[in-house]
Amino acid sequence: MNKDLKLQVLAKSKPAISLKEHIKDCLNIYEQLKICIPNVPIENKGLFWQLLRAAVVFHDMGKAHAEFQKLLSGKKNTWDSQRHELFSILFLNNLHFSNEEKDFVSQAIMGHHKSLAELRSFVDNYQYDEFTGECCLDYKKESEQILESEVSEVAKLYGFSEVKKESIDICKLIKKELKSNYTQNDANFLLRLLLIGGLKQCDHLASAGVLNLQKIEIEDLNFLFRHPLYEHQQKSLECEGNVILSAPTGSGKTETSFLWIRNQIEKIGQGRIFYILPYTASINAMYERLNNDIPSDSPKVGLVHGKLSQYIENKMSSDASIDIESKKKLVEDFKTMVTPIKVTTPFQLLKHIFGLKGFEKGMTEWAGGYFIFDEIHAYDAHVFAQIISLLKFATNKLEVKTMIMTATLPDFMRKELGKAIGNHSTICATEELYRKFTRHKISLLEGTIVDSLNSIQSDIDAGKKVLVVCNTVEQSQSVFIKLKSASKILLHGSFNADDRYEKEKQLSSDNINLLVGTQAIEVSLDIDFDVLYSEPAPLDALIQRFGRVNRKRKKGLCPCHIFKERNPKDKYIYKDENVILRTIVVLEDIIVRSNGIVQENEWQEAINSVYPKWNNDQENEFYNTTNLLDHYLYNDLEPLSYNERKENEFYSQFSGIKVLPTSLVDEYTERLYKNEFVKSEALLVQIQESRFANMIRNGAVRSERFAFERIADDSIVEKNTFVIYCKYDSELGLQINVPELPADQNSYII
User: Is the overall model pTM greater than 0.85, yes or no?
Assistant: First the structure.
């Protein structure tokens, strides 16, 4: 340990950091927060920043307890896992704030590590002996062991003089806090929320060694002017506040959104930016695109989704100069406020309105910031309802400004979005621009896709780049096997992360003549094919499929063939047959009216025909979800109070279980032995819960135990993983109906 540090009060021991130094680091983050999120939705912003600074300075003063210092120094001690943050609040009495304001600071300090319920459980365990009923912990006596002179010296260094301990019954204080109602009914709800979140940001970022929070400069957005602006882009550049944008696919909606961002930063000021997309592949592609457009010595664009570690591992696996720690740091930076732009799924935002632990920190990052929702059409009624509740809370309470972008969206959904964000501008691409995006000619084919394999093969043999989209994985595998091409790829949801990444990389090379896939191709893959053959699907899904053909509008009119007849198993994918029937009617009308040539501006009216309103089940799902979530947000969401039931409810909506194909067991074991945990996870394949349950019953899936040595501490670790006994290979993915039996099993029923 550094000799100088031996003479100082320590905040941390590994590495040794003095209390003075830690507070200095936290105040460094504090000063940057003032720059990066200046528009906190608090009427008296000056007071807010004063209170937060006081919380930062005093949050760890309880670490000056003599026994805690012995603990950090590795000496024998009687600290006995006490909570330093409870001792820290003893020094707030002489601060030049009102009693109410000191209460705000006290609450933030108390909660910067634990919830109030956890603190209550802690003091209850110490207050009384269950056998004798006698007090086990004398806070007055304990507080006398705090080195008051050291606290005063540190406080004075950062502008607070005459600091003295106050006699507080901490147990009574916590019980009082637990009885208080700090929901939105409390006039100071946001002040409490953002003080707690702000302190957590300062403490956690400083403790992680973060020195700088990046911010977006106007010159970072110069790439937006490489080409002349469309009219809807120019309007967005001049528009202040919330916007709903309608423009055709391929008309520069991403650039449009950052033109809007540029104006907001100029007129309103800095704020963290969240670019929200529905799919992992979309997010990865958008991150790479923006990261190239906004180059910087320190990244200004980050991404956050459930497969982030796997993405970083795959992306940087070929660069030997980037070690494991660097990859970990990049992942952590992306999850924090280091980057001003985050490309993310809505679920990374939605978890905060469900009150998951640490939501105060997440919401502080939103404060006065900017949301961009792209591909808003992609969500079902349940998730769309959650997004509506998120938008109402974020725009009304945290003064988030929002741009929502869509090529086509039913009017009834558009109205819900408009109500959620309140006052907003509507920007549409011009009719002239829509006419320039005419690029597809639609035809409807009789029978099913398997009836026309010869026709599809003829197009492949003629040298055309052919896209074939099926509705189920099994159908796509079957069609892929039957079609012949020297350069073909199959893409669906039953590949593991390793193989999915490799396929997306191959697709980016533009050398693939045949792509067979499922709905997985509807996401923002930058692919451009000559002709489409698709099984019947809802119109919004088909429009996305059309968008992968003649994407760059350089091929004249390209054919898009849709089969009329459904595969019997399609009903498990698209359950509302009426939507499919209405889609066929709309397409027939286009064929009769204009020989199948689609004008892009026709899609909005067509979408309204296919989706005039929610069906009964969707309507019930939507309103039940919004009503329940809005009620929770207003009446139950409370700083430092985390709801386990809500947490379970949030995670229960992710229907999928990861399994390990039996053919990859050896590779999985080897990666575990090497402690390559991210790489080992990348071998797993996700299957639906309903299918998983059936396969468990039939013996097609078993839980197996893998034991390995953890290199960091030489300990033996056991890990349970579900192994599925179905064939898997990198070309076809998981073949759910093809058994691949383990040695000790003769058969099972699929």
Answer: yes
